[in-house]
Structures are given as structure tokens and as C-alpha cells.
Amino acid sequence: MANYLAQFQTIKNSCDRIVAAVEDVSDLWPTVKELFEQHQPLKRAVLTNKTRNPVLVENLPVEFILTTDARLRSRFPHEQYLYWFREPYATIVLVTCEDLDEFKNILKPRLKLIVQNDEKEWFIVFVSKAHPSNDQATKNAKKVYAKLEVDFSSKKRERCCKLDIHGPDANFWEDLELKITECIRNTLDRRVQFYEDEIRKLTEQRFMPIWNFCNFFILKESLAFIFEIAHLHEDALREYDELELCYLETVNMPGKQREFGGFDSEDDQAALLKPGSKPLTQMVHDDSFREFDFRQYLFACQSRLLFKLNRPFEVSSRGYSFVISFAKALTFHESVLPFCLREVWVLTACLALLDATASHHNDGIVAPDIEKEFYRLQGDLYSLSRLKFMRLGYLIGYGTDIEKSPLNSACLSMLPWPKPAVWPSLPPDASSEVLEKEKTLLQATSRTKHFGIQRKPLPLEPSVLLRVANRRRASLSTGNISEIFDGRPGFTEGSGLEASPRTPSSLKVQAAPMSRTNSSPGNFESPLDRPMRLAEIFVAAEHALRLTISDHDLLKTLSSVQDFEHKYLNLTKGAAENYHRSWWKRHGVVLDGEIAAVCFKHGKYDLAANSYEKVCALYAGERWQDLLAEVLPNLAECQKILNDQAGYMSSCVRLLSLDKSLFSSKERQAFQSEVVNIAHSEMKNPVPLDVSSLITFSGNTGPPLQLSDGDPGNLSVTVWSGFPDDITLDSLILDAWLDLQDGFVHGKSDGRPTSTFFPLVVSPGSRAAVVFSISIEKTMPSGKDLQLPESILNIKYEIHGDRAAGAHNPVDAADHSVADAERRDLVFKSAIVLQRPVLDPCLTVGFLPLPSDGLRVGKLITMQWRVERLKELKGSESVEKQHDEVLYEVNANSENWMIAGRKRGYVSLSEEQGSRVVISILCVPLVAGYVRPPQLGLPNVEEANVSSNPPGPHLVCVLPPLLSSSYCVPVK
Fold first, then answer.
1. Is the pLDDT reported for residue 497 higher than 70?
2. Angstrom distance (rounded) from CA 893 to CA 890
3. Which domain holds residue 770?
4. What are phi and psi of 463, to 5 degrees?
5. Which of 119, 280, 483, 581 is an S-S bond match for 479, by CB 3.0 to 4.6 Å?
6. What is the distance between the alpha carbons of residues 878 and 862, in angstroms, rounded to a whole number?
7. Mean pLDDT of the chain
8. pLDDT for 484
9. Spatial distance between the Cα atoms of 162 and 110, rounded to a whole number of angstroms
10. What stretches pass through the bilayer (predicted)?
11. Are strands 774-776 and 811-812 parallel, antiparallel or unpaired?
């Protein structure tokens, strides 16, 4: 059957609809042909799908062909079965007769001969030419038609219908459509059953040596094509899916070498949507097809059906998955394929899918979640094409024009280099191009960031291109490091070990004499046999790409930096716009930052600032401070150039509010000096500046305050400044009040401090005390009557502008009108736990002093508590049944402390008054600074029975670790 592939494809391409044969017995077709074609397609045809379920097909086209036509001439039996999809699905017999004797003697025997084939689905159309005014002719026609029905129709099936040319014909066309549909349905069922039986036989033989995939393909695609022309697209799609699975099973069958393909002209242009781009005979290899061509052909057939089903979303979904999987196959065969065919193919495949799916997609037709997912897939396709396009641009020397952003670095540094068997050689007449590339490389300088921020450029390559390319050159040694880097010790590229300036000198000395010679056909002739320089690698790759790429538009985009940037910008915008319309809006915002970088480069600072503001808002909202530190200086620079003083100062403040480890002290001082200089300058239009993220309040954490009736307690609230240097405040205006927890009451009913100097003004360099009068409530509520589990200290203050970041989350102190929206009172709230005095304790827990040499990070220390029994516990005062056993539990922040040993257990404590026990816990401090120490609790003893004497400290000072001598280098 493989010999019939060319004829099979030709016939299939020429047949696009169901055929109905017309047996013109009485030469009526020229008269009725136009009427028949006017009533096409069939409006509502009910057919049977593969699972034998009825399916309503609307607008089913049918082509009427005379039985005398050359296309329907008889063939050999095996040819008829092979091309059965083109055989007629119905036979319409056209007759007319007005004489009953003529019908009996001449017409009836002829009709019997025509319809005697049992495999043919047929019915008879009797055409009456009698004029309504001619009664005799009308009567004769009715008699003949009545006799025709008696002879050829039965109770099971009506096979006759009457067309009156000169009379009303509404019922006739409905009857004709029903009869054609019935014939098509019966023929379709019979042919589907035949093909399924034949396919089943071949499937059972697929592991036998005689099995031929071409034969299986012809039968399978014939069945799929039958479904397709019958508009049963779901069934046709299922056949192509099964055909793909079977092909992949045979391709991956071990023990048989198969040619992959990919060497023909224009193979670099993906044919995912063009099933007829190559003839089937050109794809054949032995008893199967080349994988490169055939998998694309199958996907093209599948996408054609999906578009007919109005499912562009599924084309995008399947297309993206296919591109990823097919790229893996291209990677596996990369060493024998043309240079960079994988990158070029993926790029053209994504662009083709984008154009086709966008043209077939209509907004609002599908469900909102499907629509958003569609745009997400479009964004993925744009992102993938953008990535491959950047890789091609880098290979030909445009890497200096690609923004070294976190996104581009993350994508390109994980994308492997092309791996041809031999890296392309430099053409002999390319010296001028090499010189031009070298000039470009020497003139390329990395842009210095605003504020003098020093950052190591992010890599755009997975490893050093210079080393990778020279290793893949034929008949060349790898050379030593100085040769590879063109004798320039200061030149670094990428993130590999070879490019690192921190490579130990001993390694460099050892690497110098090492060399290795690779055997090859010797297609590079050089008397020096030296490695290629970076400029030569770029030129060689560019010439090789010109041989690989057949798309002139793609070649043009790589012909100059301007064309490259234009295409890069279009791909980035396409990805961003589609992500904005999908679920992945954050991806779109990140890509807006890449667009902003191009706008900034070309002096479009207003557009760049708008995009950078979106990116900074996203990074700040997600608390991605490392990324924000990369982008925020760019926004500040745009604002300074645009003379946006308010925005510029706000960006400087936001830079200061970022984590201190992200910038050096010198850089942070530069941020502050910019704010101070502008603030002290004579501004034409003064603007409010929100510095609440740098000057705010914080409360000190610690154990609960233990207050007895009439005893004072100290509650400290710190005014915190995030400026790197000293800064002077003219005044700080605030108000305060205290919301008490249950069990305590105010000395004053309004909850205000006893001082009458509120609002309180705190001048620079001064301290102010706030005194609250608090007493213990006589009746302590319990159970459901509890209102506040902890006390709240409220401090009201004022800031200008919108507060977005800081040490706490402010809330509006009261409702404000729209007119007062620009100036709002904000409230800082700090939770305080007050502890009622233990008047009659049964147990006391005392914290023993810490070692005199202090605490250091990583140094093992012993925390000790003394537990003493003051009196015996009563039954109602403890849940312990064994009074000589006390349950203890040590609570510590796992980020600050590592506990060695049991955190929870029992200790023996005698029931006698005055008995003592010391609980010791080994622990290691993990962080330096003032941290809260571990706390000891007695879970099974009520808090009203336990006092702290002496109490544990609120905070302890942990010193940094000592320097290790193993990291010290002696000074000579």
C-alpha cells in the first residue's frame, strides 16, 4: 500500500465533501441541477458517530456528480476499498415518465438493473414535467409515480419522492434532505465498520516484522478523513490522536535506526499549521515516515480540525506542549541538524501558532476562565519566542544590547548553548566583519546606575561562549586559559569558572599547559591552529544562521541592532499584553519592566517611568526586595530626568526603607543626601513627603508586665529612624491612650494618660514620659464575658501622602470626609499583656544569672531556672495527681535559639515547703543582637499559683561569633 501514497494524497486533496452520485436515466440533470445545488448544504443532518450515537450536523455540504463522470469510473476492487472515502455515499436516480406502459416495459427493468447492488444506498426522484393546466398529463404522472412507489418502496423504507417542476416544492426538498441524510448515514456506518475491522487487524500485527506503518497510516487517515468530510470532527480528531500515539510507539521501538529528517529546504520554518507543506512521499523512510516531518503533519491535521471545531484555545494548549516536546527531540538530534535549527524552528512555530490562534479567537464567545487561560497560553508562546530570539541575537553579537535584567538573566542563563557536532568556522572573507564586531565589543560599556550603585552585571549565558565554541571546533586543542580569553586577563563573560576573576592562581597555573586535541574531518585550515576570538565566533555564527534561516523576514530582524530591538520589543509587548488579559497579570507587569528598559535606552523617560512604577508596585506588594532594589534606582533616575521632585524624593525614601544589606552605607548615604538636598532647596511647589517608613514607632517585646496595686510600671515606645545618618526633626506631635484588658481599670475614665500636655510635642534629642494610672478590677470577668485578652497602646500621629510600607500597618483613627482625605490621622497600635499580681503563690520560678563572659552566636550555654515550693497545692489549685512530679516546658523562638535536649518533661519536687529543684537547658544562640531568651513555663499549674522571683530578662544581648583563624591569611 505504501506505493499508493502519492495517489492517496492527490485524491484526498481533491475531495473536500461528501459525494452523491446522480443516475440520470431520463436526461433530467441539466434541468434540475441548479435547483439541487440551490438547496445545499443540508441544513440539519443527523449522522451516527464512531460510538454509534446520533450527532446533529448543521450545514453539511454535498457534491452531486453524474455517474458518467470520469471521477466515478469503476476501479479495481482493492483500489475501491483503499479510496472508499471518495466513493458516493448516496445514489440519486432521476426518472420521468408519463406513460404507464412505457414505465412497465422500459423504465422499470432498467431501474431494477441500476439498484440491484446491495452495497449501494439509493432512492428515486420522480420528476413530473406535467403543467398544472394539463389535467391528463398530471393524472398520468400520478399513476406512474404510484406504480413506482409500489414497485420500489416498502413499509420499512420509503425510496421514492416526487419533484413537480411546475408546482409547489416545499415538502419535496425536506423529503429529499431526509432521504440523502439516511443514505449518507447508512453508508457511513458501513464504511466506518469496514475500516475499523481492517485497522484492528493491522494493530494486532504491529509487533510483527511484516508490519508496515504506511499501510496502517493510509487506513487510519482514510477513516479520519471520512469523519472529517462528514463534519464529525470530534471523531476525526480522535483518529489522528490515536495515529500519533501509534507512531510514537513505533518510533521509540528499540533496535531499529530511523532517519529523523530536518535537512530539506525550509525545514527551519515550522509547518505546524500547513499539512500540505510536503508531499507524503517525501516524508517516507523505509516502512515508516521521518519523525521531523510526520509529527508536524499530524499536528497540522489536528489543528485544522480544532479550528473547525472553533477551539483555538486547544490549538494553543496543544501547540505549546508540542513545541516543548518536539524541541526535546530536536535537542537529541542537534549534532546532525543544521546550526541552531532548534532555536529557529521553535521561534517560527510559536509565531505561527500566535498568528493562527489570534485570528480564530473571538472575545466573549467562550467562558471567562477559558478566555483568560487562552491569553495565558498566548503569553507563554510570546515569552518562548522572545527567549529564543534573544538567544539568536546573543549568538551574533547583540548581547550588549540586551538588558541584563533579572528576568532576562534567569531565562538565558538556564538556556543551553547550541551543541553542533562542529562549531561553524569563520569564512575566509570575513575579516572586515570581525573587525567591526571587535570595535563594537571594545566600545560596549555597561551603564552606570544612578546614585553610583555598583552591581556585578547579571549573566545572560549558561557558560562562557568562548570556551564552548572552541571546544566544539574540529582539529583544535582547547588551549590554555590565556589563549581562550584572547590574552586579555581582565575580560570576563558569563558565570562560569573560567570567567571568574576569583579563580585561584594555582588553578590558573595548572591549567596553562593542559591541552587536548579532538579528531575531526579537518574542515578548518589554520597554520596556527589557534582558538577563535569572541568576535570571530559571532561572525561565524551569523554566517551559519544565514544558511539555516530561510525566512527572509526573520533574517531581516537579525540584520541590524535596530531591527533586532524592534522585533524584541514587539515580542515583549505581545507577551505583556496577553499576560495582562490572563490570570498571570504579575508576569505582564514584570515584562513591562523590560519594555521600560528599552524606552529608557531610547530616551522615552515618561513611558519608562510609567512602566517602572507598575513593576515597583508589584515588587513592593510581594515583598520582593532584591528585585525592587534592581528596578527602583531606574525609576528614580527617570523621575530625576523628568524633574518629578515629589516622585524622586519618594523613590529615595523607598530605597532607604529597603533592607540595609541590599545597599552599601555609601549608597544609602547618597539616597539620604538627595532627599535632604531637595528638601532644603528652594522648591517652587513644595510637596508633602511621606517618611513614615523611615520614622515610625515600635514597641519593645518582652515578658508580661507584673503590676501590683499602686505600683508603677514602665512601658517604652521607641521612635525609630531608618536614615543612615543623623536627621533633625523640628517636632513630633502625637497623642496616646490605652485600651486595657480584662481585669484592669483606668484611674481616669477616658483611658488617657495622667499628663495634661496632649497633644505632646517631642523635640529633637529629648525624651518624654507618658504616665497611665491603672488599678486592678475588683471583680474579674471569666468565660464568655472576656472582652480584651491584651491591652492596646494607641498612638495617634499625622503623615502626608499614602503610607505603603513601614514597621507597622497604620489604620484610620476616624472616618474622614472627602475634603479631608489628603490629611488623615493614623494610629500606631502595640499589644501589651499586663499580668495581675500573684498575691498567694504556691510555686516560684526564678531565672538564674547568665555566665559572666556573655552570650555569643554558636557558643553553647546553659539556661537555668530554680523552681521552689512555697506551700502545698490544694486539689482545686492543680491538675497534678502526683504532687512530687512537676511538668515543665521551655518555649523559645526557633529562629533565634537552638535547644539541645528535652524541651518538655517532668522533674521531681518534694511536697514539703521550701523544697527546690534547678532545671537546666543547653541552648545555642543563632543570631546576634537583642533577642528574647527562652522562657520556662509550668503548663499544669495555674498562673495564679506561680510567681517569678527573680523574673527573667525581657531581652538578652548576643554577640557575633569570633573570627575563625582558618579563614585568616597571614600578612607577609
1. no
2. 10
3. 697-835
4. -155, 175
5. 483
6. 29
7. 81
8. 44
9. 19
10. none
11. unpaired
Pairing of strands 284-285, 791-800: unpaired
Higher pLDDT, 296 or 801: 296
* Residue 877 and residue 816 share a domain: no
Top-confidence range, 262-271, 447-456, 507-516, 733-742? 262-271
- 844 in Cβ contact with 945 (< 8 Å): no
> Cell numbers 540595609 correspond to what residue?
660
| Residue 565 counted as domain residue | yes
C-alpha cell at 442: 571594545
- Residues 804 and 713 both lie in one domain: yes
The CATH number that applies at residue 602 is: 1.25.40.10
Alpha-carbon Rg for the chain, nearest whole angstrom, is 43
Vertex 176 angle, CA 172 and 179, to 5°: 140
pLDDT in tens, 830-862: 777 676 667 678 888 888 988 888 899 989 999
Q: Read off the C-alpha cell for 468.
A: 564552548
CATH code for position 143: 3.40.50
Residue 774 Cα distances to 662, 699, 713, 735, angstroms: 45, 19, 10, 18
SS3 761: strand
Which run of H or E residues covers position 793?
Answer: strand 791-800
- Beta-strand ranges (E) seen in 646-700 are 695-699
Q: Cα-flanking dihedrals φ and ψ of residue 888, to 5°? A: -120, 160
Residue 551 has phi, psi (to 5 degrees) of -85, 115
Q: Are residues 564 and 627 in the same domain?
A: no
- The domain tally of the chain equals 5
Tens of pLDDT along 356-368? Answer: 999 998 876 888 8
CATH code where residue 949 lies: 2.60.40.10
Question: Which string of b and e fits 132-143 if b means at least 16 CB within 10 Å?
Answer: eeeeeebebbee
Angle at 323 (CA atoms; ends 214, 286), nearest 5 degrees: 20
| Residue 854 contacts residue 961 (beta carbons within 8 Å) | no
Is the backbone of residue 705 left (phi > 0), alpha (psi -120 to 50) or beta? Answer: beta
In terms of C-beta density within 10 A (0-12 exposed, 13-18 middle, 19 or more buried), how is residue 158 classed? middle
Tell whether the model's pLDDT for residue 520 goes beyond 70: no
Contact 575, 389 (CB under 8 A): no
For residues 476 and 901, give the distance between their C-alpha atoms in angstroms, rounded to a whole number: 62
CA separation (Å) from 431 to 384, 390, 426, 640? Answer: 34, 25, 9, 44
Is the model's pLDDT at 106 over the cut of 60? Answer: yes
H-type alpha helices, 39-91: 77-82
Cell of 955: 531581652
As a whole number of angstroms, the distance between CA 801 and CA 729 comes to 18
Amino acid at 580: H
* Each residue's pLDDT tens digit, 6-59: 778 888 887 888 999 999 999 999 999 999 999 889 998 999 999 899 999 999
Of 172, 198, 224, the residue that ends a domain is 198
Domain for residue 255, yes or no? no
pTM score, two decimals?
0.74
What tens digit of pLDDT does each residue of 696-749 get?
Answer: 666 655 555 555 555 555 566 666 677 787 776 666 667 788 788 777 777 766
Cell numbers standing for residue 725: 545618618
Residues 179 and 30 in one domain: yes
Same-domain pairing of 594 and 632: yes
Residue 400 forms part of a structural domain: yes
Contacts of 790 (CB under 8 A, 6+ apart): 741, 831, 832, 833
For the beta carbon of residue 389, count every other beta carbon within 10 angstroms: 25
* Residue type, position 590, single letter: V
The values of phi and psi at residue 828, to 5°, are -95, 130
Question: Based on the domain organization, do 446 and 554 belong to the same domain?
Answer: yes
What one-letter code names the amino acid at 192? Answer: V
In a domain, 874, yes or no: yes
Q: What are phi and psi of 55, to 5 degrees?
A: -130, 130
**Residue 608: per-residue pLDDT:** 95
CA distance 146 to 158: 12
Confidence of residue 963 (pLDDT cuts 50, 70, 90): low
Same domain as 814, residue 850:
no
